[in-house]
Please model this.
Amino acid sequence: MTARRWMYVACIAIPLLFALAGPLLAHGEPAERMAPFGPSPWSPFGTDRLGRDVLAAALTGGQTFVTVGLLTVLGSYLAGFVIGVSAAAAPRRWLDDLLMRPVDVLLCIPALLLIMVAALRTQGSAVAIACAIGLALVAPIARFVRMAAVRIVHGPVMDALRMQGEGRGYRYGRYAVRAMARPIAADMGVRFTAAVYFLASANFLGLGFDTTSTDWAVSVAANKDALMIAPWSVALPGALIVLLAVGTNLLVDDLLSDPRTRAVDATRRVGRDG
Model:
């Protein structure tokens, strides 16, 4: 694995380590509250506005954030995939329109508006906000999957398989899965970043988790006024969000890039080094 890919993996591994192992690592944090935005005996990052250690808060604030983001993307991609593939494989044009026109309407609704309505109607329920984010992601996912699937379902390879009497059998499905795997996997990285963005925006605006939560986005919003006197209270949770989003997209792009493009890049590097 190249050094660049190791760097991408490290970008993802750091926030995931905070999210997965953080609660265990934060067991030794001070039990009592300290002075807001002051020094902390437990870490060099100081305290936040509630007198909690900044590092301890970051260690305990990522589990729910990452879990909700992943579950939201998986749920929305399952729904969008079914709609998109069904529309692409529809034997009649009217059936394609019946599936995709509601998706077009949903695309016109701003995602943050859906999140705000869900938050206000449910008093900030995390489940309702996650469902709103998932609903906002379903429409672009369905459009993307349909675009990726229609060229495959109605392409020459599928026509050849049908002529061979394969119908919709094993070889038919295997080819479709292989042909769609690369673009869909890359798109999932983009949708995960979008889910992180929407979730962070909702929490930053005070629509998601409780304002005293240690969630990373809530911590950024709650401590932003003290950025100059206690920069780590904002920089640490903000950096974890950025590393997770950027690292995911860079790694997915690198893993799923065209092998021919990678070969050309490798040849250029060898020629430059030589």
In short: The two ends are 21 Å apart (CA to CA). DSSP finds eleven helices and no strands in the chain.
